[in-house]
Amino acid sequence: MARALGRSPATSEGGKAWGGRFRHKTNRLVESFTVSVAVDRRLYAYDIQGSIAHCKTLGKARVLTASETKVIVRGLESVKVELDRGRFRFTPQDEDIHMAIERRLTELIGPLGGKLHTGRSRNDQVALDIRLYLRDQLSQLLAHLENFQRVLVAKGKANRTVAMPGYTHLQRAQPVLFTHHLLAYVEMIERDKGRFRDAAVRLNVMPLGSGALAGTNYPVDRLFTAGLLGFPAVTQNSLDAVSDRDFMIEVASALSITMMHLSRLSEELILWSSQEFQFVELPDAFCTGSSMMPQKKNPDVPELVRGKTGRVYGHLINLLTTLKALPLSYNRDLQEDKPALFDALDTVVASVEVLTELMRRLTVNRDVLKQAVQGGGMLATEVADYLVTRGVPFREAHAITGRLVRAALDQGRELTDFSLEELRTFSERIEKGLFARLTVTAAIDRKSQIGGTARTRVDQRIKELERMLS
């Protein structure tokens, strides 16, 4: 463990950095219960990055000499090399990654390593590390999301002429382009990216220099430290800085919304690949079979994404619950923030990556979709809208079309099966021009306003998205 300056490990409780005040060693159950190094070790690169910046700031403030600063920085760089190469040896006494690094630094450079923590608390150190980590992770997540969008756009472009039933209440409603349906998820992901970018702005504020809760007694230049670490601003209240986890909750909330979108797509893939729909074929490499029923091809990937969504939601509730009753400033409860955040991030990244590759290899069953848009009354709205163009108030047009649909159901016919004479028994306003509108293509292409499913609009949106994502 890191030595208190001027002491040997034997003079403090078990070599703990904080052990001078205690007469007795920490109970082994407490050590096991409170240790977090298995979770927070992923922060090591950010902890060292922050420590180097802190060391240089202490040097600028002349708390450390230029020579001491160089030795400590070189020592930290050596520790990072050991961690990068998997040669770092953790000890049972390492409480967390921060103390493990300081302990190893002191082993390498001697008692001088104990000077690194001058003017710093683990409270502001941890707050810094998490912000550095999240800033990096959100950048990577945004890249994964953009790649997912590109695959959805490409899949849509490859099937740009394919029509499918559009649904409300899971009942066939009106025909839409399959591409239009996929691009709906591109829009969802674009909003997700916006939320992560917004969160990145608010988390990009440096807390180091806040000390344990009240600031520091040393003349450290926090703006200098922020510049070294690429932060555009520093926190303005030390109590808030060490206890603030709003940025983690905001990220967890955005992750939950993203998982909700992935789960909706997964649900549709599960439905569409079933024998009842057969709209798409999932790639064999992304499915499993049954240990009992040889014919089965199970959509395990979308099912697991759907299942993991609740797990990410749970992490958001975990963070909210942890923070809801904490008095200022730091409390050890906050140790529990990282498992929730890390697992939520890992789950979303893994889900995005696997769905991206699944969608890249997805097969669209065009013949099945072509058949699915035939009949079923999906052109009924076209009849009602036609009557409106003939001067019939919409509510009356809706009622007339409803009676026509009822007659078709009773007679086992489609709307397109009726002759002009038969149609005119429902309304004398109907002329032969109606028949030109009673096709799937016509129904789709008439939706040509911004955001509609018309082929011209969808083609235009594909071009816009390709430019945006290029």
List the SSEs and their pairings:
Blueprint: H1 28-34, H2 37-40, H3 44-60, H4 66-84, H5 97-109, H6 122-158, E1 163-168, E2 171-177, H7 178-203, E3 205-206, H8 222-229, E4 233-234, H9 238-243, H10 246-272, E5 280-281, H11 300-323, H12 337-361, E6 363-364, H13 366-372, H14 380-389, H15 394-411, H16 420-424, H17 434-437, H18 440-445, H19 455-469
Parallel strand pairs: 3-4
Antiparallel strand pairs: 1-2, 5-6
Helix pairs in contact: 3-4, 3-6, 3-8, 4-5, 6-7, 6-12, 6-19, 7-10, 10-11, 10-12, 11-12, 14-15
Briefly characterize the structure.
The strands form three sheets. The chain has a two-stranded antiparallel sheet with strand order 1-2. It has a two-stranded parallel ribbon with strand order 3-4. The protein has a two-stranded antiparallel ribbon with strand order 5-6.
Describe the 3D structure:
The chain folds into 3 domains: 9-118, Fumarase/aspartase (N-terminal domain) (Fumarase C, Chain B, domain 1, Orthogonal Bundle), CATH 1.10.275; 123-368, Fumarase C, Chain A, domain 2 (Up-down Bundle); 372-469, Fumarase/aspartase (C-terminal domain) (Ribonucleotide Reductase Protein R1, domain 1). It is 59% helix and 4% strand. It contains 19 helices and 6 strands. It has helices spanning 28-34, 37-40, 44-60, 66-84, 97-109, 122-158, 178-203, 222-229, 238-243, 246-272, 300-323, 337-361, 366-372, 380-389, 394-411, 420-424, 434-437, 440-445, 455-469, and strands spanning 163-168, 171-177, 205-206, 233-234, 280-281, 363-364. The strands form 3 sheets. A two-stranded antiparallel ribbon has the order 1-2. Mean pLDDT is 94; it is low at 1-13.
